[in-house]
Amino acid sequence: MATPSVHSSCSFLANKYLISFCVFVCVNILSSLDKGFALSTHHTDVQLSSLLPASTCSSSTRGLDKKKASLKVVHRHGPCSKKSKPNQYKTTTPTHTQILQQDQARVDSIHARKGDNLRQTDTSIPAKSGSVVGSGNYIVTVGLGSPAKQLSLIFDTGSDLTWTQCRPCVKSCYKQKEPIFDPSLSKSYTNISCNSPVCSLLTSATGNTPGCSSGTSTCIYGIQYGDNSFSVGYFSKERLTLTSTDYFDGFLFGCGQNNQGLFGGSAGLLGLGRNKISLVEQSAQKYSRFFSYCLPSTSSATGYLSFGKGGGPSNAVKFTPLSTVSEGGSFYGLDVVGINVGGRRVSIPASVFSSSGTIIDSGTVITRLPATAYSALRDAFKQGMKSYPQAEKLSILDTCYDLSGSSTVSYPKIAFAFSGGLTLDLDATGIFYVASASQVCLAFAGNSDDSDIAIFGNVQQKRLQVVYDVAGGKVGFAPAGCP
Ligand SMILES: *[C@@H]1O[C@H](CO)[C@@H](O)[C@H](O)[C@H]1NC(C)=O
């Protein structure tokens, strides 16, 4: 090793020239040492137990800013999700394989949407499917009607129409945890007529031309999802209450009379996409198209969904520009420029991300990357996890470890670089998908086709404060926004 001899010669040399020469050598040697150090990946430690959900809910008020309209966010399957009366409704929690399969169905339907708008004008055949509800979803509770009835809705940044199941359930309603909304018990409910211009907004928001009920001329919406879930019903106006002080009269929503699918006991969907009928657009006067959320790390913790700037985002929030994508108008596009593993940029040609494009989606569980980018990420991650025994793959997740022998896991940090100079460190809970201590998987998957759009999913968003400043054309992130 050269270092000790250089050091000793440094301390023994008194001659000025030699000292400056020595400084030159020392600095060079130190900087090359530094480079050598950077070549080995940096590791971060996490307690394995912190990646596992607890059996009881620990509710948090962190991020529930009084200056903003804030709702509590809970995972659909977990102890923080509202319990129903015994035997009234039994939630069957899906297996990890089912969750990941449903997630793939959502991703497939997003990929199938590419160019749907074009095809639609060409042939006037409506787009077959919108999004898939998926399974790894988060719910919030809102009030509907006067007096307001509480309803748990899946919030979805990848779709626009807000709907809930409605009495009298003319055709069919699935089981939900709360009583089904009954418009006849509300003073503020009104149907929308087929002649109303708002009725025609449904075409772009749902991908289906609205129907019209014979006789009463009530506007009828229909939205179907790639996994054969659907909701059909009356397009209506009603008072939507978000908090004790914030409500919206004449909020456009779907009053579902024929509903089927994997909505896991929730009463429907809250659409937060970019289309005109999304909640973001319908509340634009009050909240200026500004909202933020934090998805909790496990199903036993709570996060938040907030509307409006309130005191404005904290200094910790760093922004990247919003972009538009060809997969339809609902999605929020981001511009990924690279991925770091253990502090080092993984070698991925810049064109890989620029040609696929990327969206951020609250309803997709696992982040999807172009195949080329995924294999580069996986190989770098595997290098850094060499000391752990590998475990069997789990559905779409091909890189899993048996961590049952370790209470602390030392892993290479993963960071996403976005345009505008934003480098975002993912939380540990945003890197691992934990089936059990003996099967902990890298929570990323590759798209089969490099040209398919990349998706920044909800596992990777865990614990991050995610800020949508739609009017300002940017999305921001800050670490550790919720437990
Ligand atoms: C809304 O329209 C449906 C279908 O025509 C009708 O059955 C229902 O009574 C209407 N509700 C109200 C409040 O007008």
Automatic annotation (TrEMBL):
Keywords: Aspartyl protease, Disulfide bond, Hydrolase, Protease, Signal
Domain Peptidase A1 stretches: 138-478
Catalytic center residues: D156, D361
PROSITE patterns reported in the protein's UniProt record: PEPTIDASE_A1
GO molecular function: aspartic-type endopeptidase activity
Listed InterPro entries: Aspartic_peptidase_A1, CND41-like, PEPTIDASE_A1, Peptidase_aspartic_dom_sf, TAXi_C, TAXi_N
Keyword Transmembrane helix: no
Gene Ontology annotations of biological process type: proteolysis
Family annotation (Pfam families): TAXi_C (PF14541), TAXi_N (PF14543)
Xref: SUPFAM superfamilies: Acid proteases
Gene3D superfamilies linked: Acid Proteases
E.C. code: 3.4.23.12
Protein family per UniProt: Belongs to the peptidase A1 family.
Name this protein carries in UniProt: Putative nepenthesin
Organism: Rosa chinensis
Top-level taxonomy: Eukaryota, Viridiplantae, Streptophyta, Embryophyta, Tracheophyta
